[in-house]
Amino acid sequence: MSLLQVDRLNKSYAPDKRVLNEVSFAIESGECLGLVGESGCGKSTLARCLLRIESTDSGSIVLDGHSIEKMNDHQLYPHRRNMQIVFQNPSAALNPKLKIRDSLLDPYRQYRQELRLQHFQPSSEQHLIKQLLEAVELSDTLADRYPHELSGGQRQRVTIARAISIEPQLVVLDEPTASLDVISQGAVLHLLTRLRTELNLSYLFISHDLAAVHQMSQRIMVMKDGQLVDQFPQTALFAEERHAYTRELISIF
Ligand SMILES: Nc1ncnc2c1ncn2[C@@H]1O[C@H](COP(=O)(O)OP(=O)(O)OP(=O)(O)O)[C@@H](O)[C@H]1O
Predict the structure, then answer these.
(1) Residue of the nearest CA to atom 6 in ligand 1?
(2) Architecture of the structural domain at 1-82+169-253
(3) ipTM of the complex
(4) CA of 42 to the centre of ligand 1 (A)
(5) Fewer CB under 10 Å: which end of the chain, C or N?
(6) Domain spans, the chain
(7) Measuring CA to CA, how many Å separate 147 from each of 47, 153, 157, 158, 204?
């Protein structure tokens, strides 16, 4: 059984225009699935629908054997723990009034009663902060700072640490390096790959950057105007049978 199975998902914001059109795919446990497509094709909408931040019109979303597409907030609560998201802009994702330690601990404090952590084994909140910052290669002296006292790359590492703090099975990475300079981009991609292996995470890695998707993913999907036009193993990116649109993306990367 796949960790995530999505079947014929449809979503419109206006009656005459589908933003997601019959989207079907699966993500296996421990896998990074890349999603590439030009701006406005529907990638972030798909991410928001999967995480049930946004409602869907039809289709099914099965996470770890549970159909979540129609669950109410109460039913969704235990499943939300199992899927976390890292957004493009870490500044918007962190509350500017909270110290890093409190932002980091937010999901842990919310779910601590039902958590059975495998990787992080904290003896105290302070210990967890240390483990989390270590996992994303940051000094624990940053815990008492506010977000504006960190660099963009450090802030994104904090949002990654927060996402993995409750050991979800699935992490949706929505353009996680788009706001970073080239050197920080490479370092964060490297970090994400290491964390996936160490914590056996599954990623949906969303980007308009085909080179980054190619580097990170075992399989790749290509989206155009709300439809998945191509899905293939990473090694088959340059194969002859690629969709014309995929070839167009290759020609500009
Ligand atoms: N809340 C909304 N209300 C109405 N239309 C929306 C809403 N959110 C997105 N859209 C529209 O849906 C389409 C897909 O947007 P989406 O943000 O999912 O694309 P994207 O592929 O993630 O783009 P980008 O790479 O620029 O982030 C766009 O035409 C966008 O204008």
Answers:
(1) 13
(2) 3-Layer(aba) Sandwich (3.40)
(3) 0.95
(4) 6
(5) N
(6) 1-82+169-253, 96-167
(7) 25, 11, 11, 9, 26
Q: Contact 229/246 with Cβ under 8 angstroms?
A: yes
Q: How far is the CA of 46 from the centre of ligand 1 (A)?
A: 9
Side chain identity, residue 90: P
Q: pLDDT of the chain along its 253 residues, tens only?
A: 999 999 999 999 998 889 999 999 999 999 999 999 999 999 999 999 999 999 999 999 999 999 999 999 999 999 999 999 999 988 889 999 999 999 999 999 999 988 888 999 889 999 999 999 999 999 999 999 999 999 999 999 999 999 999 999 999 999 999 988 888 999 999 999 999 999 999 999 999 899 999 999 999 999 999 999 999 999 999 999 999 999 999 998 7
Six-digit token string for 31: 């896998």
Q: Is the CB of 13 under 6 A from ligand 1?
A: yes
Q: Which residue's alpha carbon is at the smallest distance from atom 24 of ligand 1?
A: 39
The structure's pTM equals 0.95
